[in-house]
Structures are given as C-alpha cells and as structure tokens.
Amino acid sequence: MKKTDIGVCAVFYAVCAFFMYEALHLPEEAQIYPMCIIAALFALTSLQVFNMVKAAKREGVTSGLEDFKEFVPSQFFALLYMIIAYLALMYCVGFYISSLIFVAATLLFLKVKLWQIIIVELALLLLVYFAFTMFLGVQLPEGILFA
Amino acid sequence: MDATLALMGQGFINAIYPINLLAMAAGTTIGIVIGCLPGLSAAMGVALLLPMTFSMEASTGLIMLGAIYCGAIFGGSISAILIHTPGTPASAATAIEGYQMTLKGQAGKALGTACIASFFGGLLSCISLYFFAPMLGQLAMKFGQPEYFWLSIFGLTIIAGVSSKSMVKGLMSGALGLLISTIGMDPVEGVKRFMFGQDSLYEGINVTCALIGLFSMSQVLILAEAKIKERARATKFSDKMMLSSKELRTIAPTIGRSWIIGNLIGILPGAGASIACFMGYNTARQFSKNKELFGHGSYEGVAGSEAANNAVTGGSLIPMLTLGIPGESVTAVLMGGLIIKGLTPGADLFVGETAKMTYTFFAGFVLIQFFMLGIGLLGCRAFAQIGRLSDAILIPAVTVLCFVGSFAIHKNLFDVAIMLIFGVIGYLVRKFGLNNAAIVLALILGPIGEKGLRISLMLSEYEPSFLILFSTPICWLLIIMCVIGIASPVFMDRMNAKAKKAEKDALAAEAKVQDITE
To answer: What is the per-residue pLDDT for B158?
Structure first.
C-alpha cells in the first residue's frame, strides 16, 4: 500500500461530501440521479480503503513517493505558473503577443539555444495562423487592451 | 446486401475526393510525427487535433482523425527501431528486435518491415470493420431506452478493463467522471445542477475541452516535471528498406497470424495495441523457422509486432461505432469527435444519409493504410530526425496548441480555463494510478445512461417501474456482458502476464543454448 493512496481516498471522500451538500439544494426529483452516483463513488472509495488496509497487512506500507523520484519541483511549478500566466496574459493582450512571450519565456527557462527559440516561435505562430486563422477561420483572442 | 455493396462503392468514390485525400495525407503525416516522438501518444494527438476537424465535413474530419490514429501507431516503431525508445507503448515489442537490427546495420530493413507489416495489418483489419460493423449496427437498431441504459453501464464496466493497475481505482475514476457529467442543466427537471453560478456550464462540461486537458495538457505537465534530457541521436542508415520477395513470403504467415490476434484484441474492450504487439511478437517467435534470430534482430519479430498493433486499429473501431463503447483511450477520443459532429454511435450510423458518411470513413480508413505505407517508406529518414525533438520544445508547442484547440470550440477563454483544470486533474490522475480514459468514457456515456434510465422509468408500465430495465432479452444479454466486462480485466492481466512470461522464458532458453554452443 502507498501512503499517497490515503490522500487520494481523502480527496474522493471530500468530493462526495461537497457534491452531496450541493445536491441537497436541488429539488427532490433532481437529487436522485446525482445521489446514486455519489453513493457509488462513496462505496468504491470505501472498497479502496478496505483493499489498502488488506494490502498494508500483506505487503507493508511504502511512501508512494517513488512515483515522484524524477520530479523537479522548481521546474514543474515554474512552468505551471507560466502556463497560468499565459492564460491571464492572453485575456489582456491577445493570443499572438501572449504566445510570443510565453514560448520565448518557456524556452529561455529551459535553456534552449536562441536560434532554436526563433525557429520554434516562427514555426509555431505561422502554423497557428495558417491552420486556425486562415484555414478554419477561428478568431483568436485579441485581448481586452486591443479589442 | 445490394444496398450495402452500393454504399461501399459510394464510400470509395466519396473517399477519393481531393479534400479527403488531403486529410489522409496530412493526418497520416501528423500521426507519424506524433507517434515517433517518445512521450506523445496517439490519444494525445487525436485529442489535440480534434478542434481542427470542427469546420470539416463529418466524414473528412473522421478520416483525418483515423489517419492520425493509424499514423501514430506506426510512427512509434521509428523511434523504437532507431533509438530503442518506443514512441508509443504499442511499439514496445518492436524495439526488441528492431533495435538489434539497427545495431547490425539493418535499420533500413527493420523500418521497411515495420512499414509493410503495419500496412498489411491495418489493411486486413478493415475487412473485419466492413464485415462486423454493419452486423452489430443491425443489432443496435433493436435498442430502446432500457437497452441504452444497460449499454452505458456495460461501457462503464469497461472502465475497469482500461484501468491500468487497479480495477477499483478504474471504477472510482469512472464514478468521478459520471459525477462531473451531471454538471449542467438537468435533462428532465430542467434545473441547474452543480453550476457554481457559471452560466457557461449550462450545457455541462465540454467534452472536447476535457479530452484536450486530460490527454494533451496533462502530458505537458508530465514532460514538465522531469529534468529535460537530450534524446539519443537517431542512427543514420543506408541499407535498402524494401524486402526481397523471399523475405516477403517469409513474413506473410506472420502477418496473417498477427492480423487475427490484433483484430480480436482490438474488438475486445479494454485491451489495446500495447498488449497486441507483445502477443503478435510471441506468436511470430513460436511459429518461426529461425527462432535463433529472435533477440538478435529478427525481421519476423518486427513484422509480428507491427502487424498486430496496426490490426488493432480497425478492430477497435467496431464496438465504438456500432455500440458506442470505446474500448480504449484513442477510440474514446474518436467517439468524442463523432458526438461533437452531432452523430450518435450505434444503429443511426448505418441508416439513411449517415450511412454514406460511415462508409466514406470506412473507405477512407482503407486508403489511409496506403498513405501510411507511402509516407512511411519515403519519409522514414526525416521522421527519424523529428523524433529527436527535445521535450523543452514540445512543452510550449503542445501548450499553445492545447490553448488554441480549446479556444476554437466556443471561442471563449472559459473553455481554455476548463481545459487547464482538466489538465491538472489529468496529471494528478496519472500520477496517483487512477485512469483518465475512464473519466472520459464516463463523461461521454454518463448523459446517454442518465437519459436512458430516466426516460425508461418515466415510460414504464411496470410496477415497480424499474422492472422495465429487465424487460427484454437484450437487456439480459447486456447485463451478462456487464458481468463479463468486470471479469475481463482479470483475464487480460493473465493473458498479458502469460505473454511476458513466454517471452522471458524464450530469451532465457536462447541464452542457455548460446552458452552451451560457446
């Protein structure tokens, strides 16, 4: 049994509790179907807890962190924040400018050579322009600053 | 019968329209590129490019997605052969013999064998697609709402099959997906459910956004978590790719056997190309007259593995198109594409105007195999170089495409935010041994099952009303299939373990023989 599975089950119980609380605010007829699913999820999570206890007795307990042995927190979180910032930036300045900044920032952060950055920027933005803007006619976000 | 033959002929005429041929060429090329990039999967590629097909006709869009699917399954063999890193799990067995051939200076021959075997595996799988799909489609015509309810339950039991390690975790993922599928307007009562004040959730969670998030964005986060490593340089090769007629005759029976194996595995929900390649490889070794070559670069081994994994493609489309049961993640994504086009898998696909679209797709699927052969043989050298593309470049490139793809659906940034949330969920789901394919299946099947259940209960003349769910022989057949659906993962696990054990034993025996002769 992995210790991390305890956290997984806790999250699933929390999801059940949250959706049950929300479902109680629905009219009675509309409650039945979601409540059945919540009950099924609760039962399956409890079955998983039972299996975990059995496995712990049989095989012992491991931390579960072995699945994260190659995890580089500084790189992962920096990239995750960049992706979230990309969404915010796209809302403000539109798709093309935000993508230009995001791709350059990410590639610089990952220590990609400058000539490769220029090629990737050009290739990616031209691909999006021709495939989505020209071919599919998708109006990509212009941003609130330029709208 | 005549009508079916006419539809088949019409399908081929429609499939050779220039736009469809262009979709085949583009889809196959994109698929091979995605396949030969280790870390990117066929499901990810299909999900990522799904929005590109929105403005296309349904048949053209499906042909393009089918071409990406077939291309990606074949593409995985290029990096497996040249850099000993399977581009997709479906090529894991190809790496064993393929890389040994590369070390012996026969990389061209290995790639040629992979190309030819993939072509025949895929082409032969179309036979079963043509033969079984309309038959099952006829059966689906007899379905009413209670049957649709049980069908969705059967689909959900398959979740246990597609779950990687733990059946319970697979079912938990499915139940979570079902709960998420209830977000939006209640289809019967018309009240808002779990919308958290967001009117954009009125129609529920957009399945395409969820698909892109769960398969593509989560892959970006998987790539982002580990230190970026330089990929091995692909071996340059100068030997001939085409096989001699004697070599072609040698691999013909292997391809035939692998076709049957791959096709059956494709039809079985829960199994996939990654199992088929090992089974095809082991069968090739069992029947080979040159067993001593296995483990040291046998082109028969490459053919066995590649024909089997490509034979899965046609087979896996059968339950998805006829019953609406996607047996694995790629077909779940393809089914999402079908639903977005306003098409319901099942009997409807084989009647009236929709049948023309279906048969055009089938014919397109046959032609895709020819494109795969041509593009594969001509472009192997170039694809080998693309396969070296660093994760550092893939991370921002795939992110940008995820953002554009999810924005293109309704042209609003709310969908992009939903995609991002599902990306994080998908990442956590994969890290903690849950199953994102199960969530997707539940998101697709949830509304079908809910509608089937609630309409059945409303129309029921039985007392108590739920007895309508057990009122027909088809309902009972589906109930039995649900039980089999739960039991099949255990059977699959045993089959997989048996195949791996046989492979280990054979390698050990070969090593022993070699020791003795030395």
So the answer is: 67
